[in-house]
């Protein structure tokens, strides 16, 4: 329905007047103090019937009819029929006109296993060609990322014989250098033999060993030239002869367990560290160990032993600083029996400045232990520091008299040129040498082998 322009204008003016009247509405009743009178509005207009809305569909304009394509409805005559024969046979119907679904009963071919199915492979990405450098005219230069370093293979484990050779290198180099200088184009005479004997004594091999090696060298060679390599070979053979009788394993009598090992030695010779390494070896072998912190005058020794106990899973029996060492050893023995320990290792003090007090303490420990086990301690092990040289000889003498030492451990062979002192000790005291150490690592303490030691210190290949 189209509205006349005049009617539209009339409606617009009427709406404007209504809005004007609303603007002048009186709201004064809000300011009065009295009660608000109830007013009722007139909403009767809501009940009036709304006139139906005329269709808003517009008739197409002349311009739209001009551009619209002419579409005429199809007539009955335009219909083309299709014969049933042209549709083909109805395969899904049986003779009765019903659908045939027998094909559902047919067996399907077996499925391929999932892992045998060919997965679509992603096309290979070709490697990017090397980037060409930028021309100088650009004013830029590319800084390429450096290539990734090749992975470093772990260093092969060095054998004990090689580590011993490295540890004794200072002793060996000094001895070999003196031999080479002495026997270069020189006949073997009295002066040469005397000089050679002096070289051996200076290497801490001991007078007895030096004289025996010199006598062996002169046999059948006096007045003849001799090469340094032959001298070193004879030296290695004679050192091995001296050391072979003392190179023994430490036997543990577990029929009387716990086997008690009392470790003695001067402070600083590596007693506590040696105890820790021995404990590690024993626990690795499946033995149960109890430790006793018997050096009650050094707090550092007690703490160090506790650390080794934690590392090896061994119980450490300790008391306050200054406690009675013999009483602690007694308590540790009982505790080892309760724990069914195989071995009890007891640390001790090493104060040589007061030899009388040290002697009394070690004698008391031995006496107390013998009350529990007549043969205890079964092993009295003394640690020796190779760097002390000739002093180690006198230390063995003292501790043999004080505590009845019956076995030795030589430590710190890697830090000295005086490793030959072990030969002198073996020749004089003939005590078993159970272990030698060439470093701080837990695997740097190994059973003593005469042939390995002799070859390493003489500087000859191990045959």
Automatic annotation (TrEMBL):
SMART domains associated with the record: AAA, SRP54, SRP54_N
Region (Disordered), start-end ranges: 1-158
GO CC aspect terms: cytoplasm; plasma membrane
EC id: 3.6.5.4
EC class name: hydrolase
Domain of life of the native organism: Bacteria
Residues that coordinate or bind GTP: 265-272, 347-351, 411-414
Composition-biased stretches (Low complexity): 54-74
GO molecular function, one term: signal recognition particle binding
GO biological process: SRP-dependent cotranslational protein targeting to membrane
Reaction equation(s) it catalyzes: GTP + H2O = GDP + phosphate + H(+)
Stored InterPro entries: AAA+_ATPase, P-loop_NTPase, Signal_recog_particl_SRP54_hlx, SR_rcpt_FtsY, SRP/SRP_N, SRP54_GTPase_dom, SRP54_N_sf
Protein location: Cell inner membrane; Cell membrane; Cytoplasm
Predominant place of localization: membrane
Keyword Cell membrane: yes
Keywords assigned: Cell membrane, Cytoplasm, GTP-binding, Hydrolase, Membrane, Nucleotide-binding, Receptor
Membrane topology category: Peripheral membrane protein
Domain SRP54-type proteins GTP-binding stretches: 432-445
Biased composition (Acidic residues): 86-117
Keyword GTP-binding: yes
Quaternary structure note: Part of the signal recognition particle protein translocation system, which is composed of SRP and FtsY. SRP is a ribonucleoprotein composed of Ffh and a 4.5S RNA molecule.
HAMAP family given in the database record: FtsY
Function text: Involved in targeting and insertion of nascent membrane proteins into the cytoplasmic membrane. Acts as a receptor for the complex formed by the signal recognition particle (SRP) and the ribosome-nascent chain (RNC). Interaction with SRP-RNC leads to the transfer of the RNC complex to the Sec translocase for insertion into the membrane, the hydrolysis of GTP by both Ffh and FtsY, and the dissociation of the SRP-FtsY complex into the individual components.
Protein name as it appears in the record: Signal recognition particle receptor FtsY
Organism: Jiella endophytica
């Amino acid at each position: 329905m189209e509205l006349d322009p005049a009617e539209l204008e009339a409606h617009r003016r009427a709406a404007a007047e209504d809005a004007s009247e609303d603007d002048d509405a009186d709201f004064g009743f809000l300011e009065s103090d009295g009660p608000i009178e109830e007013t009722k509005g007139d909403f009767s207009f809501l009940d009036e019937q709304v006139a139906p809305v005329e269709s808003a569909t517009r008739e197409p304009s002349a311009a739209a009819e001009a551009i619209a394509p002419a579409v005429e409805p199809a007539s009955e005559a335009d219909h083309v029929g299709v014969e049933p024969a042209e549709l083909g046979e109805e395969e899904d119907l049986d003779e009765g006109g019903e659908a045939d679904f027998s094909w559902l009963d047919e067996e399907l071919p077996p499925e391929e296993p999932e892992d045998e199915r060919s997965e679509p492979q992603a096309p290979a990405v070709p490697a990017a060609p090397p980037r060409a450098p930028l021309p100088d005219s650009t004013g830029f230069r590319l800084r390429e990322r450096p290539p990734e370093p090749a992975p470093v293979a772990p260093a092969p484990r060095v054998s004990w014989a090689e580590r011993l050779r490295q540890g004794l290198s200072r002793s060996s180099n000094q001895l070999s250098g003196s031999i080479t200088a002495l026997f270069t184009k020189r006949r073997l005479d009295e002066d040469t033999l005397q000089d050679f004997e002096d070289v051996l004594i200076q290497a801490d091999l001991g007078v007895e060993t030096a004289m025996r090696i010199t006598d062996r060298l002169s046999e059948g060679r006096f007045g003849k030239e001799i090469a340094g390599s032959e001298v070193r070979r004879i030296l290695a053979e004679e050192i091995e002869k001296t050391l072979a009788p003392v190179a023994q394993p430490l036997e543990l009598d577990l029929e009387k367990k716990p086997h008690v090992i009392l470790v003695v030695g001067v402070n600083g010779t590596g007693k506590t560290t040696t105890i820790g390494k021995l404990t590690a070896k024993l626990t690795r072998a499946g033995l149960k160990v109890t430790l006793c912190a018997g050096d009650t005058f050094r707090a550092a020794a007690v703490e160090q032993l506790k650390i080794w106990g934690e590392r090896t899973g061994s119980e450490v029996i300790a008391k306050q600083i200054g406690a009675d060492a013999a009483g602690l050893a007694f308590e540790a023995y009982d505790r080892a029996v309760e724990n069914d320990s195989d071995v009890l290792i007891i640390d001790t003090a090493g104060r040589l400045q007061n030899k009388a007090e040290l002697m009394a303490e070690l004698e008391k420990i031995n006496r107390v232990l013998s009350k529990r086990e007549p043969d205890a301690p079964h092993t009295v092990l003394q640690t020796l520091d190779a760097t002390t040289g000739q002093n180690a000889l006198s230390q063995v003498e003292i501790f043999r008299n004080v505590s009845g030492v019956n076995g030795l451990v030589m430590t710190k062979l890697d830090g000295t040129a005086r490793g030959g002192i072990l030969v002198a000790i073996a020749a004089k005291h003939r005590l078993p040498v159970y272990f030698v150490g060439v470093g701080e690592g837990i695997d740097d303490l190994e059973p003593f082998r005469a042939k390995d030691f002799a070859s390493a210190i003489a500087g000859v290949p191990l045959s």
